[in-house]
Amino acid sequence: MKKIKVFAPASIANLGCGFDIMGLALDEVGDVLEITAEEGDGLSIVNDTPVPLPEDIEQNVITPVIRKFLEITGNKAKISVRVCKKIYPGSGIGSSAASSAAAAYGMNELFGCPLSEEQVVECAMEGENLASGGYHADNAAPAVMGGIILIRGYEPLDVIKLPVPGNFYCSVIHPIIMVSTKEARSILPKEVPMHKAVSQWGNVGGLVAGLYSGNIPLIGRAMKDVIAEPYRKQFIPGFDALREKLTEAGALAMNIAGSGPSVFALADRGDIAEKAGEIMREHFDALGIEYEAFVVKVSNKGAKLIA
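^ thats the sequence. predicted structure below, dont judge the formating
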């Protein structure tokens, strides 16, 4: 019998302009799984957290990840998973991706690392498909690999790790409002006007250029979303007013985290990030909406083994 404990970080997808192709990992916040492999066959998942998870393992994102790993590698084993720590589902900070990444990374470690890092991401994408109805890596890739990730393409998967500026902070707030990824995707337009597409392409290019050159003002200017945000911001009370307050306080940008309802503000100084977090808390306090809030650095670390 082999047993390991693994952590995978929370993540923020899209980064404004990078719908389905960009994401970053957050420091300190994430999921912890304990995975045991022994001779035999079968899968069991036990939830030891207060966060509600599906009782039917067929509805748990961990299940297709583990099955995909065993299928790819040709291994057979009895696998037991204990969920020790869990991001709240529907939070917009990669709840399903954290569990999926932890499961994929943990299985790879248990069986002697037969898969490459990209193949581990592909396994984690199986959980994302169950959660949202599509094979997306904008949360799964940073949760596995850490840092800021660009997915150049999906057929085949082509993942690029971008430079992370030394002092890059995220202030994140998760208002306790349930927004499912499937619902948030269903309201998006099926076609995009050319002028909006051109604007979005320019922002993606600007963001990548800003990260490689360390041009912080360019990064802030580029983190604008003209495709999804106009439709998704309706789920977040006072979205435009909150952005105005954060910008005035010195935040580089404020965007929806993934499909929401979490929002994040990016800053290049810790004091600005702390102020942004305070403004976010005041905003939702005034609305009478409960929340979770974090002020953390953007992390270069992805999934990892823990004691």
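Residues 152 and 158 are 5 Å apart (CA to CA).
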